[in-house]
């Protein structure tokens, strides 16, 4: 089948991330989508940089109209941002019968109704997974995963900059201003951070989520927007004394009188999972009447996380628009002909870390014997715990955490440790995963 | 448009949950799917109970063959469980050209390859969101939301029974046997809990996730399966001393040599979000090369959470099979004609709890004045914190957490509190959400 041709408007951070991931994972993505997806054309005002980044693989132009008017282009990715040119180009692409993928929350929250109406009339898709919470597939969850539910409320940490600032304010007891400067130096906040710190970016995203959760038009103008600039370190401390964390939340709730739609710093009980989302991470908590609460967590920004969402939309459109109905989304996620025969490894070959507990005589030399056995098998020790023997006991427990090794090495080590005269009974073995 | 006719095989816990949610949220679901979805026929051996539950709305039969052979049925939901009859019926439904929705992980993990081959040849969909992690849309995330990524590993708490037992063992310092009995009494463990506590159920689910993450056939027979029955309370305690929690994880990893696929009790650092998933909740952590780590959390079992996943599959199939390609998944999640005009509430009308901080003179009567103002506006106090004045100071901070009230009441209260002679400056107001 001939490739899907994609035109990319704007090759900045997310654009180059999209270009790179699409190239790096081309084989994997084709196995899923059923046909190859290629960025055939790139428009950017910085034509030199665009040429460098695309390295001759795509046609590079400085006039985005050449992309949206090109009859060979199937899907247009809009990564220009803002409401002006971006809106014109999206509407032109739609008028030309092209599907559109965009990460532009500001555009959708303020002009989405007009854009979706045009797309509906023209029969094209407009996909926007990247507009909310970066790589977390929260749009898909709300639009498709939770369709059985009456959504009752959504509360999300949907701006990484402000969550980073709040985490630092809490960790270091610093005031807003000091942390903002540090965040800017680290690249977690932009030179002009107004949209982030005043809550506008979060409100754009909350507006989009409210729309697809309840089936209402985008109404950014009715959202209440309050940022974190006036937050004092003392309030973060007092909240903590009372068992709460302060997070900038985008909240939307269904009530009998209407929909609440608001962004503001919010105290939440520290025992909630979402209260423990730190640094630049995002998380969205959704309450549905059937499913209860579900939480979606991940990176809400950055080149490749956002690219992950942009490309998921490309694959969705490719699957929906080009396959026959019954084979549109492959049963096993990959196209049937693309199922691979990667072997499942036998357990002896897996690699992980281990917790070992052994019951030993409390006398010199025991630990030396045990560590020698581990060293001989190239198993290195990460941590150790030796308990005092109980009152009147001569034996005690030693617990060892190892670094990563093959399971067969651990099995060999355990056999040797159990053969030591100073060790009683079996060595208890548990596996340990850092999950980092 | 005429309704989609669904046949339900088995109306036990999940079946009746599906029936009830579909009925309760009929309007909402139709707005999303574009047409009505009706359970027209139910097969169950307990025909009396089935009649009672369906209350004359669906035709009730005791021979499931009547459902899978009925030409009026578009989609068959298989909720019988097990490998025997369930497999025959699913294959018959497919042979008769019906789409299938199933929650049967055991069936898919062991006979999935045969079932998906038959479905592929016949051109019907087999959807199974409910087979892994109940209401959490993890299958959709892996199959559609993360298609840009080379999935590197998945680690999931995908069995609620064992997670409940491990949480209780840790909280109460009890041994496995004691907690199992308690879990059975509470309904968190079945009378015969073997599949859960020996890790088999988790291994079925891990097998399914590995298949769709890497594009490999289902290979349950190659999974390593170790349960929690031999876990001792002392190991949970020692692990905790070292900064770890023990969870039963379903793990699958891509390595240069092949795929790891294993279920076993696992130590994980306590600071990871997934280490803090307690009780019967489920969570799946997925590492992709572009998106990084994303986490999906929610209820992994129960009538309505599982029904949420079953119905999401029904809506998916309805959207895919019955709309024209461009309008298949509505832009705003609801069909364009079904967008509603629910009002967005003005901020004065929203209801939440509040954190109030005020700077006051440290003398008798101040607190009485403040609490009187709150009481007069029917605002009740949840917690209070009064700091000692600093060395040589005569003023101090009072922090009050209120119960839920309308924002306009709080604004009125703040106006009155700020007018008190004993209160200096502005009252700081932050909103508080329990998110429970």
From TrEMBL, chains A, B:
PROSITE patterns: ACT, HOMOSER_DHGENASE. It is an enzyme of class 1 (oxidoreductase). Residues 355-435 form the ACT domain. The keyword NADP applies. Its EC number is 1.1.1.3. Pfam families: ACT, Homoserine_dh, NAD_binding_3. SUPFAM superfamilies: ACT-like, Glyceraldehyde-3-phosphate dehydrogenase-like, C-terminal domain, NAD(P)-binding Rossmann-fold domains. It comes from the Bacteria. The keyword Amino-acid biosynthesis applies. PANTHER family: HOMOSERINE DEHYDROGENASE (PTHR43331:SF1). Belongs to the homoserine dehydrogenase family. This is Homoserine dehydrogenase. It comes from Undibacterium rivi. The lineage of its organism: Bacteria, Pseudomonadati, Pseudomonadota, Betaproteobacteria, Burkholderiales.
């Amino acid at each position: 089948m001939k490739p899907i041709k994609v035109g990319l408007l704007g090759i900045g951070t997310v654009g180059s991330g999209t270009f790179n991931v699409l190239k790096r994972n081309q084989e994997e993505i084709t196995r899923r989508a059923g046909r190859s997806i290629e960025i055939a054309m790139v428009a950017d005002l910085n034509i030199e940089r665009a040429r460098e980044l695309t390295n001759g693989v795509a046609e590079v132009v400085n006039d985005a109209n050449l992309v949206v008017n090109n009859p060979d282009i199937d899907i247009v990715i809009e990564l220009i941002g803002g409401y002006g040119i971006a809106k014109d180009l999206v509407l032109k692409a739609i008028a030309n019968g092209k599907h559109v993928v965009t990460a532009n929350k500001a555009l959708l929250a303020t002009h989405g109704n007009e854009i979706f109406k045009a797309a509906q009339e023209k029969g094209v898709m407009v996909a926007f997974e990247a507009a909310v919470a970066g790589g977390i597939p929260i749009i898909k969850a709300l639009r498709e995963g939770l369709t059985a539910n009456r959504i009752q409320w959504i509360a999300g940490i949907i701006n990484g900059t402000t969550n980073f600032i709040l985490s630092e304010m809490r960790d270091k007891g610093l005031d807003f201003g000091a942390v903002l400067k540090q965040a800017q130096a680290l690249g977690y906040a932009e030179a002009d951070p107004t949209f982030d710190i005043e809550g506008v970016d979060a409100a754009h995203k909350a507006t989009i989520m409210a729309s697809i959760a309840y089936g209402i038009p985008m109404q950014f103008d009715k959202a209440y927007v309050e940022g974190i600039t006036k937050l004092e370190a003392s309030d973060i401390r007092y909240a903590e004394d009372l068992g709460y964390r302060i997070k900038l939340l985008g909240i939307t709730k269904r009530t009998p009188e209407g929909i609440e739609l608001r962004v503001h710093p919010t105290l939440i009980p520290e025992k909630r999972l979402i209260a423990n989302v730190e640094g630049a991470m995002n998380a969205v908590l959704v309450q549905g009447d059937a499913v209860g609460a579900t939480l979606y967590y991940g990176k809400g920004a950055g080149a490749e996380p956002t690219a992950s969402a942009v490309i998921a939309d490309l694959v969705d459109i490719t699957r929906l628009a080009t396959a026959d109905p019954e084979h549109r989304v492959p049963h096993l996620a990959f196209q049937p002909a693309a199922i691979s025969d990667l072997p499942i490894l036998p357990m002896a070959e897996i690699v992980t870390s281990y917790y070992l507990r052994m019951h030993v005589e409390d006398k010199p030399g025991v630990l030396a014997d045990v560590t020698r056995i581990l060293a001989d098998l190239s198993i290195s020790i990460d941590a150790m715990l030796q308990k005092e023997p109980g009152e009147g006991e001569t034996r005690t427990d030693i617990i060892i955490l190892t670094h990563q090794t093959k399971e067969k090495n651990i099995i060999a080590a355990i056999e040797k440790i159990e053969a030591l005269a100073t060790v009683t009974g079996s060595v208890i073995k548990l596996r340990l995963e850092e999950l980092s």
